[in-house]
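We emphasize that the prediction below concerns an isolated chain of 278 residues; any contacts that depend on oligomerization or on bound cofactors are therefore not represented. The input was used exactly as deposited, without trimming of termini.
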Amino acid sequence: MSVRKAATTLSRCCWFVFVALVLVGVFRDPLLPFGLTFVPAAVAVAITVVLGRLSSREVAAQARPAVEVGPPVTGRWTALNSPADRVPSHGIHAYGQTYAIDVVAEPETEAEGRRPPFRWVWPVARRNEDFPAFGAPLLAVAEGTVVHASDGQRDHLSRNSGPALAYLMLFEGAVRDMAGAHRVVGNHIVLDIGDGTYAMYAHIRRGSLQVKAGDTVRTGQRLARCGNSGNSTEPHVHFQLMDHPDLDLARGVPFSWRGVGVPANGESFTAGGAVSTG
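Result of the prediction step, given as a token string:
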């Protein structure tokens, strides 16, 4: 086990110990003096800070050129949390997310209405079927081999309201982070596309996989469908390139989508190309 993997595991263990101590203190006599209860949490935060700084230095030293691949979707989409606007794009380097991007599908015509907007109060949550991204095909961005493929986690309701987002940020997200990377990204696929580069698709729809580990795929081949599993506010595609298939060890690799580039936050784009079913 690498030092980074061991540190990540220790951090999660510290959070579990902290939560256990708090719960014990609520329902019975505390096991430790009040101040000592927070020591595991402080250790976990310190480890996270150190790993974040180490990742920043590693990414700066790595300075890899952008890898051009095909777009993972087809149709009309809008970019969010784009590395075109800031790096790391999601605010952290963890799980190889340095250059990750989120994209949400937009209705193709005015007759189809518009994507449900964020609401501060009501409705608190929406069905996944209300979002045009839900069920959209996810395409192989390059020829490669499937390293990991999972689709057993449920697709939850949207978290695109004030109360639901607070629940995600304050409770659900923390629990998923303690459970590990696979719970944060939800159902996901990792492709080995060669030259030490791996493509990861997160939040895919439950039961939608059309490939399995070990399969060889072609560019444009349908892999699965967009879903809303893991730490996700609404059905969307989270895509990233990284240098290792293990999310706890991976460092982000910059990308460029052929014919699209790297769309900025709020920028809409249309990805074309035929979809191959395998």
